[in-house]
């Protein structure tokens, strides 16, 4: 009897450890469908889809709680990619969420900025740099063009600038560009 209890206890511990490892692994790796959907979305974190960011929208799509046509920044290209991934028919962009337009970033007129920090608080991707009562600036390579910083600005010093479409900027976020280094000559000193 005691041997049976010991065997059951050992099995319970092993089973508990396996479940624990599985839970940790799932938590670290995430849901592969959600990850694939999130990778297709433009990562603007603009909230136009009614979700607080691209990841929550991806989770809602995966659960069947949201349609694939709620992302104005992604437009028809993203809708088609989501339809292909999920094996559903594409739908036209739901105009209740906005219209698809050209890619943009924002710039701050540094001569007019009063350093209120309201734009910093509104930016979902931390693309604005500055300190209270100091001039702010936009890190253009990080800006997703969501324009959420424009409305809270009390002095209207934030302006929208179109991003020229290049192979590097066709999808948000723009991939980081490697620094070009001249080739090293063999045996030469620097």
TrEMBL record:
[4Fe-4S] cluster 2 binds at residues 113, 116, 119, 153. InterPro entries: 4Fe-4S_dom, 4Fe4S_Fe-S-bd, 4Fe4S_Fe_S_CS, Elect_transpt_cplx_RnfB/RsxB, RnfB/RsxB_Proteobac, RnfB_subfamily. Residues 168-190 are annotated as: Disordered. SUPFAM superfamilies: 4Fe-4S ferredoxins (SSF54862). [4Fe-4S] cluster 1 binds at residues 46, 49, 54, 71. Pfam families: Fer4_21, FeS. One of its GO terms (cellular component) is plasma membrane. Residues 104-133, 134-163 form the 4Fe-4S ferredoxin-type domain. The keyword Nucleus does not apply. It is an enzyme of class 7 (translocase). GO terms for biological process: electron transport chain. The complex is composed of six subunits: RnfA, RnfB, RnfC, RnfD, RnfE and RnfG. This is Ion-translocating oxidoreductase complex subunit B. The lineage of its organism: Bacteria, Pseudomonadati, Pseudomonadota, Gammaproteobacteria, Thiohalomonadales.
């Amino acid at each position: 009897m005691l041997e049976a209890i010991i065997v059951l206890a050992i099995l319970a511990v092993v089973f508990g450890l396996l479940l624990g490892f599985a839970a940790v692994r799932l938590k670290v790796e995430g849901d592969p469908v959600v990850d694939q959907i999130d990778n297709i979305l433009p990562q603007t974190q603009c909230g136009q889809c009614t979700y607080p960011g691209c990841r929550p929208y991806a989770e809602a799509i995966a659960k069947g709680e949201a349609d694939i046509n709620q992302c104005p920044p992604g437009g028809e290209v993203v809708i088609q990619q989501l339809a292909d991934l999920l094996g559903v028919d594409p739908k036209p962009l739901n105009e209740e969420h906005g219209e698809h337009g050209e890619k943009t970033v924002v710039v701050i007129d540094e001569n007019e900025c009063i350093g209120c920090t309201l734009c910093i608080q509104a930016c979902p991707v931390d693309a604005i740099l500055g300190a209270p009562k100091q001039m702010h600036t936009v890190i253009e390579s990080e800006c997703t063009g969501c324009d959420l910083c424009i409305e809270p600005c009390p002095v209207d010093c934030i302006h929208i600038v179109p991003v020229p479409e290049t192979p590097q900027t066709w999808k948000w976020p723009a991939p980081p560009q490697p620094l070009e280094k001249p080739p090293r000559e063999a045996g030469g000193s620097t």
